[in-house]
């Protein structure tokens, strides 16, 4: 069903030009809302569909596979989840979330900030955080985009005189884990699609009297890309299953998420290079869809933590475990 919704949309949806800022399609959003997909994981008593992260992962992956840019994850899995977790009411407004480092400090770029209706803002206050919602129109916003034109806007939050709602730090830690997981899922879906497009291309393209897929050099490029993509997906799925089973609080979870993000980040380099190499000149054109997935993977891998930061976390965990406990760390024992 999810693939069907996005596939039908993709046939008629306009494609933006190079460098253009992406605006999510409100008509598509309304259609998804009518199908119960906008708040797929929300509690049924508050208007959600009561599904879980496995279903949400499939929805996000389907959107990526069809090149649909829309704030599903930021709205459902992050902003609305945080409101529900802190006992705050949730209505039909479209939301995103931002975690400010200091009271009143300009935050890092916020996904879809200028395009949504409300922004859930958290800021540190002593041993906890505080939460409040702002209407987008009430905040100074500096427009920006990521590599694929998705809005990444900078907001300045003045919380002076705002009491806010108390949020324990462990809930903010969960938000950070979920944010990182969202991007891992999206990167993996983009890499899988880039590999699939490459396989289709080399199987149908004939050069020197035979398909490209018959050349050993091409086979090596494809197999390397497929292996990296599969590794990233396996690490991400392992982290996701641990998160679901432990309600996002397992002692192993931070290491597994770091591993998933590290694998996905490095896989993005290999898959992008190899996919464009086997496609040749046609793969560099705006008309060909390959760039929708390779550039997306490169953009998303650096959000909610850089590849280097995730590498450092994996290395730090391995060093802390030591030789005797390293295998137990890797195996999740």
Give structural notes:
By secondary structure, this protein is of the alpha+beta class. It has two domains: 1-167, no CATH class; 170-331, Butyryl-CoA Dehydrogenase, subunit A, domain 3, CATH 1.20.140.10. The protein has nine helices and nine strands. It is globular, with a radius of gyration of 21 Å. Keywords: FAD, Flavoprotein, Oxidoreductase.
Question: Which terms summarize this structure?
Answer:
single chain, 333 residues, alpha+beta, Butyryl-CoA Dehydrogenase, subunit A, domain 3, 2 domains, four-stranded mixed sheet, three-stranded antiparallel sheet, 9 helices
Concise synopsis of the structure shown:
Helix content is 53%, strand content 11%.
In round numbers, the mean pLDDT is: 91
State the share of residues found in helices, binned by percent. 40-55%
With helices defined by DSSP (H or I, 4 residues minimum), what is the helix count?
9
SSE series: HHHHEEEEEEEHEEHHHH
Task: Specify the biggest β-sheet.
Answer: 4 strands, mixed
User: Radius of gyration, rounded?
Assistant: 21 Å
- With strands numbered from the N-terminus, the spatial order across the biggest sheet is 1-3-4-7
Strand content: 5-15%
Q: State the separation between the terminal residues, measured CA to CA.
A: 37 Å
